[in-house]
Structures are given as structure tokens and as C-alpha cells.
Amino acid sequence: MNDKPAAPSDAPLSEEELLEIRRAYHSLEAFQLSPEHRAAKEILKARLAKGEPKKPEEK
Amino acid sequence: MDIETPLSHPARMPFPSTPLTLLGRLKHREMPRLWETSWEEFFDLYHNAVNVCVMGAFKRHDWHDVPPPDLQDVVLAVFESLFRGHASFDPAKGRFRQFLTTLCQRRVVDFIRSHIRKSSKLTSLDSESFEEKEIDPAFARHSTVEEDAFRSALLGTLLAALHAEVSPRTYLIFELVKLNGESPEEVAAQLGVQRTVIDNTVFKAMKRLREISQREEIQQEL
């Protein structure tokens, strides 16, 4: 999507661009449905519920 | 004609609004429900990218075969930094993916340092060369795998913006026809509308996607 001159904003997305978006969609969907992602989300939820960790502020 | 009738069935994949919007919402910790929805949406989009980025950062420090639980621990620490507001993204300072990569590298360095301190077996790791790697500009370069993972997250963001900006029904039709490859005839029959409605809705969604993809915040990242 970034190697070509920009198409006019009133033109619909090209099939080629759509294909790349479709691949990303399916790849994200597969990852989100994976047990690893779900388990990690639960762990993160528990960690966030515990309150502030000892980590100092980022600079 | 855009149709606004209620959904006959829910969209299959929930997508958030744009990362900048989401990041803004993450600041509202005084609104727990909004904050929780926001972090979950953000995590769904960027978990894979951060995973890949953290693995890459370990490899650059010659830390191969990091046990999965440790890897996950660092990945979650990246998100905790972000969600708790310890690290905040400033678009004026650079691209979002660079910000996220730097955050991944910092958490990896934290982990390695803490591991070195804890384990006498690892005291042979030269702390001087470790620091050199940390500041080497080449160190910040993304591998192809990382680029792909971030690009996928960003393309997911385009869809997120579309989802947020059109009616649920429009998004559903676009999703069924263009993302899931169902025929317009099938979708028309399924939703009880004419084929031309499907065609027009899909065309409008594709046009809107083009508009979104040309926005500055997206172009900067792409």
C-alpha cells in the first residue's frame, strides 16, 4: 500500500490492497482465537486487577 | 443506499477504533469500564506484534530459547507499562511502532538485568557489550517478521476505524463479502435485501477504507 502513488480519496480500495487487509484480518483473527492469546489476556487481566507494580515511571 | 437496520447476527470479529483513539481512552483510568474495554481491544490488536518484537529483542541480545513463560512475562510487562500509563505515546516524537519497539526493548533489558542479578550462571554475560547493543542504532531496526506483525496490526486498525465509522450492518456486509469471501447473492439472501443494496454498501465501505488509509496517522505508520 505504500509503494505506489496515493489513489484519489474518493476511489474505493483496490483489490490488491483489500487482499492485504484480508490477510491481516484472518491472521489477527486466528491469533485472537488461539489459546495462547486467551490465556495471556486472562493473566494480564489478573495482573492489572492487582494494582500498581513496583516498576518506576518511564522516561 | 446504506442500510441501518439492526444486526441479524453479531459481527464475527470485534475491532476497536484507531490506536490513537484507543490510547487516548487508556488514559481514562477513572472510568474503569471504558479503560478495560480499551485495553482489551488494544491487546487483541497488538499482542502478536509485541510478542514478535520481544522475541526479536531477546535474540539481538543473544538470548535464544527464552522459556515461553518468561517470554510471556515480558510481553505482558510491555502492556502493563502502557496500560498503567507508565509509558505514553507522543505522535510528535515519532511513529507508534517505534515507540512500541522501544518499550519492548526496555522490558527485555529489565528482564535480562534482573536475571543476571539473580543467576550466578549468567554473570559471564559482559555487561559492557550489553550496553553497547542497547544504544546501537542498528539495534532498533525491525526484522521482516516484526514489520509484518506491526503491519498486520495496523491493517487491523484500518478495519477498526471502518467498524467505528460505519453502521454495524454496513460493516457486517463488508466483512461477509470482502473479508470472508461470501458471494453478494448469498449475503443478500441471508439478510433479506436486494443484491444492489449489497453492492452499494460494499462500494461505500471500500471508499471509506480508502479515505481512512490516507489519513495522516495511518500513512505515517504505513
Protein described:
The complex is a heterodimer of chains A (59) and B (222). Chain A has 59 residues and is mainly α. Chain A has helices spanning 15-32, 35-49. Chain A is built from 2 helices and no strands. The longest helix of chain A is centred in the middle third of the chain and has 18 residues, at 15-32. The mean pLDDT of chain A is 79. Chain B has 10 helices and no strands. Chain B has 222 residues and is mainly alpha-helical. Helices cover 68% and strands 0% of the residues of chain B. Chain B has 2 domains: 19-148, no CATH class; 166-222, Arc Repressor Mutant, subunit A (Orthogonal Bundle), CATH 1.10.10. Chain B starts with 18 loop residues before the first helix and ends with a helix. In chain B, helix 3 packs across helix 4. The longest helix of chain B has 29 residues, at 32-60. The model of chain B is unreliable at 1-17 and 122-139 (pLDDT under 50). Chains A and B meet through helix 1 and helix 2 of A and helix 2, helix 3, helix 6 and helix 9 of B.
